[in-house]
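ok so I'm stuck.
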Amino acid sequence: MQPALKYLLASLWAGFCLSTATAAAAPKDIQWFKADAKNFHYTGRIDFARPGEAGLIWQASEVSTRFNGDYLAIGFSDVQGQVFFDLHLDGSTQVLQAANGWTEIPVKKGRHQFSLFKRSEANAGQARFLGVRLASGAKPKRPRITKRPKLIFYGDSITVGANNEDGIEDQWETRRTHNSALSYAALTAEALRADHQNISVSGAGIITGFEPHPAPAIWYRMAYHPEAAPAPLADWPADLVFVNYGENDAAFTRRNNQPFPSGFVDAYVEMVRAMRKAYPGATIVLLRGGMSGGANSQDLRTAWDETVTTLAKEDKNVRHFVFQHWTPHHPRVSDHRQMARELVKWVQKEKLLPVKRRR
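replied:
not stuck anymore, here's the structure
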């Protein structure tokens, strides 16, 4: 978080050589289309509490539009921490670090397709999207949207995609290499031709972990804070809800020579019961694995099995799946691809989503 300027300059120089409006004022005939305009399409748990703005908090939050002309600037405010996006423009992708103010994106005259995908996670940082500035006479248009299945993933760093673009060692100094777009969650959704939300927090557990707020206090919130406003969960009627917790309950207690949390099963069961009320028509899938704790911790495996058994007895639409692939460190992109292949194969085998033929 401290070397933000260093990584901002690096990301701005690469690819598009982005320049901010603070360095050079925009032409006077530029139009501002605010973020709450109907010209944009959003996917994710987006905060529209402030008129004219869109809070991009959770990883996998995405905004897209189409526009014409030869000028584009993207606006952000209230940037907190490190916030990285995949900027997709006309088939090319560039990593963009959000900064307060307006960032000019060089474009040639013509028609364009544009989207921002939040690749960094909620507890690393968040920003408010102000909209876009376009040349006089240009107008953004909402992209053509086809109806797709809706998936939502709840979990910890495994599901976030933390460290997945790192080298041999995990690093947390910059979140530029923590890419939710290449997490098993995003890859699974892509393979199943579905939209998804990713409401996961690195270090979070059911009872304890490396973050102060446990999952039962956070999963239904608009932001990563136990006092944040509840999210409008009914606006995302998920078809499949994936839940993957326990790694941090096991790792944190093991590191501190503590027993595995005795209340894990009861708390996990109650959280999934609450999820059932929020997603009455969904199939809820309890996941385990991806790292060594989920694969090898006998305490976690025993508690997870009890959780699964308890919920399956009372809810026929609660299922479970265990990843065979796991790593001793945080999964890298290749590991996420393997995990996604396993999960997609199982979802298709179990026919949890309708099969759609490719055209």
